[in-house]
Design a protein that fits this description.
3-stranded antiparallel β-sheet, about 45% helix, 5-stranded mixed β-sheet, about 375 residues, 17 helices
């Protein structure tokens, strides 16, 4: 009975919860009055003010102690530095940083005095280009794989990346089996059924793990292409799933029904850059609104570091917006460490990474036929270190 109850809860999660990994979370936004008032009351001390001043000219790092006071001071400095364009409403795709900025009142603190409201859009995964075309989305938060998919279908360069994360840990993609199974590693799955969505970035990890074993696709294992992966695992329809331990998979692990038997290959294609996260926007919007874009990117940089360092509080704040249980979000934040920090790599290195990953995908993923042209409209270069 317990297993059946947990399974029903997980299946409901697939319908009402969002993925905060390759994509976004569902949300109608949040009345942040109470949280915003509390956040505004936090005044930076001298140490926090000094760090905030530094962070205007460099990215936050794990060594920096990012507090509410630091974030508030960065916001004050950004408001002094920029006169924001009259954009009215900024529509954004939800992720952990976005929910924190919304729930803590940081978006309101930054843009509110200029008459700008930030709204989180619902259910935008895989629809970002069309929403941006209609002016219904301005900033999307995706991993490199779906951005490469979008750019493959963007010959006119209507989309451009304005931010790139640091590399993820191997734990950002997990191989999960039922806890009552005898499987102990990916190698034990030879001849078995493995589920993942062929349109998602964990599919890259599945391909890489199989290649590392010398396995032939759908010969040495059977790939089940589905987005109902947790339900398939619980029903015994597949032997394992390969996916992010995000808001859909985390409950399976926290309940004890599922176990992690492997992760992305440490130092492999995905962990060393294929799993990077990017923020992208309509190219014309970035050109027309550089001050808004610069401020949004910098706030993301600082708030992302705050989320990494305050995972429990960030998860509690997010739960009030997207209703995903905080323990699941905290589990995901702790599993994806790194992807909320800005990459320390130069623009040339980021180009090399995107190019090499796309070349690997051409060789290994039928969704890609040609390498991506990273020199033409892939990055908005003024937002990156050009060294």
């Amino acid at each position: 009975m317990k297993n059946r109850i947990v399974s029903v809860v997980l299946m409901l999660s697939l319908a009402v919860s969002a993925l905060t990994a390759c994509g976004s979370s569902d949300s109608n936004g949040l009345d942040t009055g109470k949280n915003a008032a509390k956040t505004e009351a936090v005044v930076a001390n001298d140490t926090e003010k000094a760090l905030a001043k530094e962070l205007l000219d460099r990215s936050a790092t794990p060594e920096d102690k990012i507090t509410d006071g630091v974030v508030n001071e960065v916001i004050a400095l950004l408001k002094d530095k920029y006169t924001f364009e009259k954009v009215g409403t900024i529509y954004v795709e939800g992720d952990n940083s976005v929910y924190a900025a919304q729930g803590k009142g940081w978006f309101k603190n930054l843009f509110g005095d200029s008459g700008i409201e930030v709204q989180i859009q619902q259910s935008v995964d895989d629809d970002e280009p069309s929403l941006m075309e209609r002016g219904e989305l301005h900033f999307a938060n995706r991993m490199l794989y779906p951005y490469l998919i979008d750019k493959k279908n963007d010959p006119e360069n209507k989309l451009v990346a304005v931010w790139n994360s640091d590399n993820p840990p191997a734990e950002i993609v997990t191989v999960v089996a039922r806890s009552d199974s005898d499987y102990k590693s990916f190698a034990d799955l030879k001849g078995k059924k493995i589920a993942s969505s062929a349109a998602g970035c964990p599919y890259s990890t599945l391909i890489e793990l199989a290649a590392n074993q010398g396995w032939e696709y759908n010969v040495d294992y059977e790939h089940v292409n589905t987005k109902e992966y947790t339900a398939a695992l619980l029903a015994g329809e597949v032997d394992a799933i390969v996916y992010h331990p995000s808001s859909v998979v985390a409950p399976l692990l926290l309940s004890g029904e599922g176990k992690i038997i492997d992760t992305a290959i440490d130092g492999g294609v995905y962990q060393s850059g294929g799993g990077d996260r990017v923020i992208f926007a309509p190219t014309q919007y970035v050109k027309d609104n550089p001050n808004v874009t610069h401020a949004y990117v910098k706030l993301n940089d600082v708030v992302g570091a705050w989320v990494e360092q305050n995972a429990k509080e960030a998860a509690d704040v997010e739960e009030a917006i997207d209703r995903v249980p905080a323990e699941s979000t905290e589990f995901w934040i702790n599993s994806s460490g790194g992807t909320l920090y800005t990459s320390p790599d130069s623009l040339n290195d980021l180009k090399d990474n995107a190019r090499s990953f796309s070349e690997w995908l051409v060789e290994n993923d039928k969704n890609f036929e040609h390498p991506i042209d990273v020199e033409n409209g892939f990055f908005a270069e003024e937002y990156f270190d050009v060294g």
